[in-house]
Amino acid sequence: MSNKGKAHMGRVAQLPCCLCGTHGVQVHHIREGGAAGAGEKANDWLTLPVCPSCHTGTHGIHGNKSMLKLSGKSEHEHLGETLERLYGGLR
Ligand SMILES: [Zn+2]
Ligand SMILES: [Zn+2]
Fold first, then answer.
1. Record's superkingdom (predicted)?
2. Is residue 28 within a helix (H) or strand (E), and if so which, with residue range?
3. C-alpha 32 to ligand 2 mean position (Å)
4. What confidence tens digit (pLDDT) does each residue in 45-70 have?
5. How many whole angstroms from its chain centre is CA 66?
6. Is residue 10 exposed (0-12), middle (13-18) or buried (19+ Cβ within 10 Å)?
7. CB-CB contact of 13 with 50 (8 Å)
8. Is residue 73 a contact partner of residue 20, using CB atoms and an 8 Å limit?
């Protein structure tokens, strides 16, 4: 696991929730290819800032995903916006 990835996750954790804008977020790892296997290592760059409610709540990403559907975007689109928010101004 690279230190750069860890530093990136620290930055993601400072952002407001990408689904509802609440501060005080958890870092969600986007899992490629569905269910996470036991030995699968999470990619620190495929992470989203989501508040506890939008993360593991009933309507959250690990719940029925209705907050994600309401946002009208996929996890990967939110990932693009998160990276843009963090690094887009550096160009
Ligand atoms: Zn939220
Ligand atoms: Zn998660």
1. Bacteria
2. strand 26-29
3. 12
4. 999 999 999 999 999 999 999 999 99
5. 15
6. exposed
7. no
8. no
Any residues with CB less than 8 A from the CB of 59 and at least 6 apart, and which? 53, 65, 66, 67
Centre of ligand 1 from the C-alpha of residue 18, in Å: 7
Query: Is it the case that residue 86 has pLDDT exceeding 90?
Result: yes
**Which two structure tokens, joined as six digits, stand for 27?**
């870092």
CB 73 within 8 A of CB 54: no
**End-to-end CA distance of the chain, in Å?**
26
For residue 16, with 0-12 CB atoms within 10 Å meaning exposed, 13-18 middle and 19 or more buried, which class applies? middle
